Amino acid sequence: MKRAPLFFILILTACAAQPSTPSAALPIVSVYASPATEPWLDDVYACATEVSVVIRLSASQSVADIRLRLGEPPHLTTPAYQIGEEDILVVTHLQNPLRELTADEARQLFAGGEENVEVWVYASGAEIQELFEREVMRGTRIHSSARLALHPQQILDTLNTRSNVVGLLPRRWTNKTIREVFALRNVPVLTITTDEPQSAVKELIACLQK
To answer: Residues 73-106, buried b or exposed e (16+ Cβ, 10 A)?
Structure first.
């Protein structure tokens, strides 16, 4: 499935880190992770240990040294570095009779609904929703009866308790109690910075790109 080109996806090569003295304070890198990318924080912490930096989670995108998100945001004008790929899945409960869908069938399900199926989506500003609407819905409106989730965990919890639910989740958010019926594959996972990264930020991103 075609996807809009990424104009600012770069590859970083970090300079070799200089060994720190025992008395030197470790540099701090602030990181904002969108709800969709929260599972990728495990990789961030692993790399932070490798390159000897301290991670401080930020509640604000605007003040973070690095922000993680799925897919290229609209009007991207600052450096962005791809650190991996993710699949956006249409998922349901294992006991739901719904089977594998084509893109057209997924579009029809979210646009027209289906008897005894409860569809869950996100607010229009969430990157999962932006990607799904652009790549799958393609201008077709999602049915007004769709339920609105504030966070992937809300959809996951609902899927685990109600067999008639269908929702959207990144693959890293899934578990063995749910089943995928459609996949939007190979969505880039990005780290975005305000300026050209330097020192500790540069080393951390280079580690994530390995």
So the answer is: beeeeebbbbbeebbbbbbbbeebebeebeeeeb
Q: How far apart are CA 158 and CA 54, in angstroms?
A: 35
Q: Each residue of 80-102: pLDDT tens digit?
A: 999 999 999 999 999 999 999 99
Q: Are 166 and 140 in contact (CB under 8 A)?
A: no
Residue type, 203: E
Of 35-39, 54-58, 111-115, 123-127, the range with the lowest mean pLDDT is: 111-115
Domain that holds residue 17: 9-84+188-208
CB distance 31 to 53 below 8 Å: no
90 and 142 housed in the same domain: yes
pLDDT at 156 over 60: yes
Number of Cβ within a 10 Å radius of residue 183: 18
**Are 23 and 71 members of one domain?**
yes
The closest of 120, 113, 122 to 93, measured between CA atoms, is 120
Element (H, E) at 161: helix 152-161
Locate 24 and state its tokens.
């030197």
